[in-house]
Design a protein that fits this description.
The protein contains one helix and seven strands, in the order ββββαβββ.
Length: 142
């Protein structure tokens, strides 16, 4: 393979509500933490262990507005995106680092806001399609 790939797929629960930041010119970004869990059994003690990994997610513009409107802490979501690391100078002069997931597509798996979205919906920032709530039967190929 000659090319490279930076792709992340996550299914997890929001650790907090979406925090919005608006910029001049009408652009905006939304940020929220996403928790993914791994559950396993300790072979020596037989104890069930749950390990949680936290991911910092960033959504932009229309996708951010949709997430802010429909998502709240605890909701389950499927996301696709890419890993992005960045650094900045803090007020005290120290250099800070973070790693984020720049979300390109997402699907709501369960949401508490807006009953029309309870069955799910999706969004792709590449196609700028709004989330679609299933209505009735879905004809699946399998």
């Amino acid at each position: 393979m000659n090319g490279t790939l930076n792709k992340v797929i996550l299914i997890g629960h929001l650790g907090d509500d979406v925090k919005m930041h608006y910029f001049e010119g009408g652009n905006c970004i939304g940020r929220f933490p996403l928790a993914t869990n791994e559950v396993y059994i300790n072979k020596t003690t037989g104890e069930k262990i749950t390990s949680t990994e936290w991911h910092n997610l960033v959504v932009r513009n229309k996708a951010a507005e949709i997430c802010e409107k429909y998502l709240t802490k605890g909701d389950k979501i499927y996301v696709e995106g890419r890993i992005k690391s960045r650094q900045w100078q803090a007020e005290d002069g120290t250099t800070k680092y973070t790693t984020e997931i720049q979300v390109t597509e997402f699907t709501f798996l369960n949401v508490k806001k807006e009953t029309e979205q309870k069955q799910g919906g999706g969004y792709s920032s590449q196609t700028n399609e709004p989330p679609i709530a299933p209505t009735g039967e879905v004809d699946l190929p399998f």
